[in-house]
Design goal:
Blueprint (H helix, E strand, L loop, with lengths): L2 H13 L4 E4 L5 E4 L6 E4 L6 E3 L6 E3 L16 H19 L3 H12 L3 H12 L15 E7 L2 E7 L5 E5 L4 H25 L45 E8 L11 E6 L5 E5 L4 E5 L5 E6 L7 E4 L4 E6 L2 E6 L5 E5 L6 E7 L5 E7 L2 E7 L5 E5 L4 H4 L6 E5 L5 E5 L4 E5 L5 E5 L14 E4 L5 E5 L2 E5 L5 E5 L8 E4 L4 E6 L2 E7 L2
Helix pairs in contact: 1-5, 2-3, 2-5, 3-4
Amino acid sequence: MDSDVRAVFTRYTNFQKGLTVADSPSQSQTFTCSKCGAPQDYQGGSAPTIQCPYCDTTLIVPEALRTGAPNLAAFSASEWTREAEQLVEIKRLVDAGKKIEAIKLYRETFGTGLKESKDAVEAIERGQNIQVAQITFGTPQTINVNQDGSGITLTPTSGGGVQISSGQSRGCITWVIVIVVLAVIAAVILPVLLSVGAFALFMPTSNESARIVTILTDVPRASPTARATETARPSPTPQFANVASEFGGSGTGAGKMEDARAIAVDNNGQIFVAEYLGGRVQIFDTDGKFKTQCLMDKAPLPSLAADRSGNLYVLQRTTIFKYNAATCEKIDEFKPALGENYENIAVGADGNLYATMTGNLKDSVVRLNSSGRATVVVDSAISGQRDNFELNPILAVDGQGNFYVLGTFASQVFKFDRSGKFIDSIGSEGNEPGQFRGADALAIDSQGRLYVSDSKGVQVFTPDGRFIDVFDIPKSVASGMAFDDQDNLWIAAREQVYQMRIAK
């Protein structure tokens, strides 16, 4: 835990001296008895029925008024602590003027979409408070945290949420303090309650119910593995792609992983799997057996690629680093033009390195030679087609040198020929087959078919953009995808790597 996080914890300890709790009225909800018509002063709970106090009729509580039982299995104190540390880093990036990096880190930490992440970061930039998580037990309470005349106030709302207000000098850090306070509560108080068998606190009574409340924020938070539920998912062809093997598992030991989001395969079938944070790149053989690992800079690692000459390219701190894949020795580094950032990288069959680049109000694609010099530049690859700047373009190259750029904001894929001429766009935003919601990874097989990972699964398209099919992977969503020479699709999915065998 770094000094900034420790400082926040210290600040929280000091605030404890001024902590006061004032009871506020319970938020009751009313519906009428179906027999006598009397209003029912319902205090909430998960029980499906109550008894009318006027005529003793048993009434069914409307589903919309019931409070769901807490999901303790999903509760993770360590996850909240990690999120607090990430929030501190996001604030640092905002203060340093690195807004794009802050948006990307917010998105990866909390699993929100790019628009939601951008809104959150801009709120932080304006000094506004955002709420990340909340736990309440029983009757809602107003909590005042004060020190030297300034502080924060947490006030329950009628919807079961909480509104945060701050004193004059604390506004910019309140959002950090709130999550740290909750992390401390989670790490210290809740285990004690559970260890003494205090489950009764979570059981509904006639007057009040203990609740774990849904997260309410200025920007809605979504689980990173959530599936879209707006419309029914299209039925995939069962045999289009099957899991041939898998490896990994949660942990930091050899072959284990915690947040694998980037993957590459070289011509010898070696598999390179990178964790997003910590700078760890593990190397596996064609059977998925751990061989060794390279430890890079601890900065976020959003993308990597391998060529057919034994080189491994790693993107960190908006710079591309070239390594010897066998020895992990750094060979070279390629920096973008002044004021621009490399965002995503890919290697073509010709051995050339391709990269997406943002900055200066452009979302460009460049082809680099072995010295890192740009030989092809496509300025405003996405914004030139849509008039909207793209923050997170993702890249893939086919065997003919055509390159495809996935706009995660645009919810479309844009196809260019080898000279950089725009050819066509594929898909649109939505939940129907061939549309994208939360698209996050891109790959191309030897037949030129396009694979796009989004909340519905992995969608497959012909080279000219016609939708073919969609298939799922177990337990998660694909954060990174790469094909080997045998047309096996390798997928990085946070704690697991899957080898998918394409049946068609």
